[in-house]
Recover the amino acids of this structure.
C-alpha cells in the first residue's frame, strides 16, 4: 500500500531496496573512487548498492579489476562507455576531465527503468548512512544538491550568480541526487554541448557551471554540512555554527566529506583535519 | 611437516589459524574496547579472531551485548571472571582500574591448550595487519613489547630504570605478545601481589611498572612506531625519524595507534592528528 504512494521509486526498486550510485571518472581517479566505495560500504553495512559508471576510456582490464573490487564490498557495478567525440570541444584539464560532464548526461544514458540515482564525486569520503538522502522527497524538483555559500562566503555566491546570470544559489555538484524520470524530460544533449561551448570562456568549474546554468532552477537545496561538507573549512563551519559543528558533530552527522579544491588528500603533502582518516581509507583499499 | 618445526603454535592452532587476543577492562572501557574491535576487524578482514576477556565485575547483560557485538564482526569472545579479592590491596584509579593487573595473570587464567595470546589495551586503534606480530619468533623470550624511549626521551627511560631498579628498557605493556607456554613457568600469582603491594608507593603506572620489574628481562623489544605508536607524539616521531614517519608512512605501516595518557580520544575536547580517525570509528560501532 505505502509503495503506491511513493512517487519516485518503482515497486520493483522498493522491493530490492538497492541504492543506485552514479560515478563518472577517468583512469586517474580509479584509486580515489576505490577509497570512496570502501568508505561507502563501511559506513552503510546494511545497504545494497549498485554503481553506474559512465566513462570513455577506462581500459577493459581496469574495469574487470574494479568490478572485482566492488564485488568484494558486495557492490555490483555496470560500466557504460560514452563516445569521447560527444564532448570533444568541451573545456577540460587534468583536474576537470571530460568525464565530469557525463553526470548531466546520465538521464539520457542510464536505463529507462531506473528512476533515481545519486551522483558522487570520487574525491568524497562517506562517513555515515546515506539512506535519508536516498529517500528524500524531491517534490517538483529534478535534482537535490548543496551550496557552499554558507561556509565560503555569501559574497562568492553572488559573484557566481552574476557570472553565470542565474537567480538561485550556486550549487556544488559533487553530490547530486537525480530524479531520472523528471530529469529525462528536461535533459537535452544538444543544449548541454551548446552551453559548454558557448560559455567556454566564462566557465571556472566547467561542468558545475553548466549544471548551474541549465538546471539550477530545477534543484532543491540540501544542507552542505551534512551532504557536501567541504573538508577544507573545518574552522569556518565551526565558527559559523557557533561551535555546533565540532569534530564529534561532524563525525556523527556529516555523511559526505568532500575534498574540494586542488589540494587532494591522496597527495603526500596533504595535511588537514581529516588527513589521517582519508589516508587510513587509502590504505584499507588493498586489504 | 612445517607445522612440527613451529615452536609456538600447536598444530591444532595452526590449522584453525585463529588469532587469540587478550583484553582486561572494566565497565568504563566497554565502548573503547568496541572501537578497538571494530578497527581490528576492518584492518584485518581475512583473519579470524578469538577474544579472551579477563574481568571482575562486568554485568551479565553487558557481556551478552559484547558477545553479540563481537559476533557481528565475526569475532568470538570468552569472558573469564576473576575474583576481585585477589587484587584488593593493589593501587587503582579510574584511569588505572584493577583489571589492568590481570594481563600478568593471564598465563595462569587462560586455558592450558592456549599457547600464545596478544594482549591489547582498549585505548588502541588497529590500522593494519597484525599477522606478522602474531607469527613473530620469540626465541627464548616469554613476551614481546615496545618501549617509548625512542620517541619520548632516552632520559625518561633512564629515570624509569633507576626508579624500578631494572636494567632493560622500560616497556609499555599496552601491546604485549605473550608466549603462554613459557610465561606459565615464570608467572607466580603471589609474586605479582607482593610486588604490587611492596612497590605501591613507587608505582606511577602501576601494572606496567610491576610488569617491568618482574618480567622486563624476559621481554624482547619490538618497534614502537609499528606496534605501539604513541598517538600523542606525531611530531616527535617525524622529527626523530628525519621525516620518514610522516602521515602516509604511519597509515601504511603502523599497526597499533595507542592513545596513551590522560587525554583520551573519546572525550569531546580531544583534538589531535588522529582525532577524526578515532571519532569516525567511535561512530561506526553503532552501525
Amino acid at each position: 500500500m505505502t509503495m503506491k504512494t511513493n512517487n519516485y521509486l518503482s515497486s520493483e526498486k522498493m522491493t530490492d531496496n538497492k541504492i543506485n550510485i552514479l560515478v563518472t571518472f577517468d583512469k586517474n581517479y580509479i584509486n580515489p573512487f576505490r577509497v570512496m566505495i570502501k568508505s561507502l560500504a563501511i559506513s552503510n553495512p546494511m545497504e545494497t548498492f549498485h554503481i553506474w559508471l559512465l566513462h570513455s576510456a577506462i581500459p577493459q582490464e581496469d574495469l574487470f579489476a574494479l568490478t572485482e573490487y566492488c564485488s568484494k564490498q558486495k557492490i555490483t557495478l555496470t560500466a557504460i562507455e560514452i563516445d569521447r567525440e560527444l564532448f570533444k570541444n568541451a573545456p577540460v584539464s587534468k583536474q576537470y576531465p571530460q568525464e565530469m560532464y557525463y553526470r548531466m548526461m546520465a538521464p539520457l544514458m542510464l536505463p529507462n527503468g531506473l528512476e533515481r540515482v545519486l551522483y558522487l564525486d570520487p574525491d568524497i569520503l562517506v562517513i555515515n548512512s546515506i539512506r535519508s538522502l536516498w529517500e528524500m522527497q524531491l517534490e517538483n524538483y529534478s535534482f537535490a544538491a548543496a551550496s557552499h555559500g554558507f561556509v565560503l562566503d555569501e559574497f562568492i555566491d553572488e559573484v557566481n550568480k552574476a557570472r553565470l546570470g542565474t537567480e538561485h544559489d550556486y550549487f556544488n555538484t559533487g553530490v547530486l541526487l537525480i530524479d531520472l524520470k523528471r530529469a529525462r524530460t528536461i535533459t537535452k544533449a544538444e543544449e548541454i554541448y551548446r552551453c559548454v561551448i558557448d560559455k567556454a570562456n566564462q566557465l571556472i568549474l566547467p561542468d558545475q557551471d553548466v549544471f548551474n546554468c541549465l538546471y539550477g532552477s530545477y534543484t532543491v537545496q540540501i544542507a552542505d554540512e551534512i551532504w557536501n561538507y567541504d573538508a577544507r573549512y573545518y574552522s569556518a563551519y565551526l565558527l559559523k555554527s557557533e561551535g555546533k559543528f565540532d569534530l564529534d558533530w561532524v563525525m556523527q552527522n556529516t555523511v559526505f566529506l568532500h575534498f574540494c579544491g586542488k589540494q587532494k588528500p591522496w597527495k603526500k603533502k596533504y595535511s588537514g583535519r581529516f588527513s589521517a582518516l582519508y589516508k587510513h581509507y587509502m590504505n584499507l583499499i588493498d586489504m
